[in-house]
Amino acid sequence: MAKTMDRDLAARLRAESEATRDDDYTNGVRPARPNRAKVYSVRLSEQEQARVEAAAAARNLPASTLVRSWILDRLDAEKIA
């Protein structure tokens, strides 16, 4: 079941990326900052980092994509806007 969910997540992320592939980044509006995304720095032990990278590799995803999806899933589960 977990592998099906992983494949579904990977497919969803690919579909979202492909759906907006040719869109203008700003849709005609220039953002206040060139990069709209915020970057968070998270401290992990070497063992924790290895576990994240192994989980991502098993799903054929970059580690950052997997971690982002985990965060978004948790926010959705906790109904945080």
Produce a short descriptive summary.
This protein has about 80 residues and is an all-alpha fold.
Offer a few descriptive terms:
81 residues; mainly alpha; 57% helix; 0% strand
Descriptive overview:
The chain is mainly α. It has a domain of 39 residues. The protein is built from three helices and no strands. The mean pLDDT is 80.
Order of helices and strands: HHH
**pLDDT below 50 for ≥5 consecutive residues: which ranges?**
none
Number of helices: 3
Helix content percent band: 55-70%
Number of strand elements: 0
Task: Let me know the largest β-sheet.
Answer: none
* Structural Rg: 15 Å
Distance, first to last CA: 28 Å
Mean pLDDT: 80
Which range does the strand content fall in?
Answer: under 5%
Shape: globular
> Which class of secondary structure composition applies to the elements?
mainly alpha
Break the fold down into its secondary structure elements and pairings.
Layout: H1 2-19, H2 46-58, H3 63-77
Helix pairs in contact: 2-3
